Amino acid sequence: MPVNLDALIRYHTIDKCLQNFYREWTWEDLAKACFDALDEVRYRSDKNTVSKRTIENDIKVLRSNILGYNAPIVCKKGLYSYSDRNYSIKNASLTQNDIRNIALAIETLKQYKGFHFFDNLKNAFESLEHRVTIQLYKNLNKFIHFEDTYLPTGTNYINNILDAIQNQQVLKITYQKFDSEVIKKNTLHPYLLKEFKNRWYVLGFNPNFDFLKTYALDRIKEIEILKTEIYQANNINAQSFFSNVIGVSNPTDTIQEVKIIVKPIFSNYIKTQPLHHSQVIIKEDERGLHIKLQVVHNVELETLICGYANFLVIQHPESLKKAIKKRLIDALENF
C-alpha cells in the first residue's frame, strides 16, 4: 500500500495527539491538529480542513496491520484515545522483512559516502537493529555480494560544497589537474554536485570562462568561502541538466542523435542494459538491433562505445564514427 507524505504526517500527528491522555480528542480536534501539521511542513494552495472521512480512514489504517501499526485506538462517545498508554506508532516493531529491506538499502547507499546523511542513516539503522535484536544487517554479506566501492579522495568537500550551493556562496578552490604540476586558484559559483563512476564533481560558473565548468573533487586541494563575492544564481535542475549527458564532460554541447546497430549476439544485453536512458529501438533484423540515442558527444560517450566496439556499428553521426575509429587505431599501437 503506497503511503504519501501527507498521510504519514497525519498518522504521526494523530499518534502524538492520542499520547496526550490529559485531554479528550474528537475527530474535529484530530482534523485540526493534522491540518496545522500539514500547513507547517509545506505550502498548501488549498486551505480546506481535513475531513471527517479522512480522519476515520486514517484511524482505520492505524488500527490495522496494513502498515504494521495495530494501534489500540478506542472510541467512546465520539472521543478517541489509546487503550494502552505506553503505545506509540514510533515503537511499532519492524518485521524481519523490514529489516532486510533496510539492510539492502544501507548497502546500496554506501555509494553516497561523504554525505552526513549516510552516517546518520547508518547510526539510525544500528539503533533499530539493537532494539529489535535482529542481526540480518551483519549477516547480509554472507548471502549477497555487493560491488566493492572505494572512497575516493575529495569526498570530504561534499558537504561544504553542498552548503555553499544551498546558501548561495561563492568559493575559491585550489585545484590541480591530473596531467599538470601547476596548482591554480579558481573562483567558482557552485550549482550542482554530480557523481559518476564513484567520482564526485562540482559544476558551476567561473568568471574567467563563458561556459559552465566542471571540477573533480579529488583534484581539489583547498576550499575557501569568498564572503564578499556576490553569488550569481542559476536555476539549473540536476536531473534535466545531465539528462542527455553520459558522464560530466561538455554538458552544454549540442544534443545529437546517435544511431547504432548492435550485432545479434549482443542485442539481448543492450535491450536489458541500455547504453543510455534515451535509447530507443528502431527495428531488429538480420544485421542486429537498430537503436538511437539522444546524447551529447563527449569523451565518456566515446569510452562507453569503445568498451563494446566489437559488437557495435556506428551509423550516425560521422564525427562520432571517426572519433571511435581514431581511438581504436591509436589503441592498436599499444599492442
UniProtKB/TrEMBL annotation:
One Pfam family name is WYL
Q: Which domain of life is it from?
A: Bacteria
Q: Which residues form the WYL domain?
A: 157-225
PANTHER family, from UniProt?
Answer: PTHR34580, SLL5097 PROTEIN (PTHR34580:SF9)
Q: What is the recorded name of this protein? A: WYL domain-containing protein
Please name the source species: Pedobacter aquae
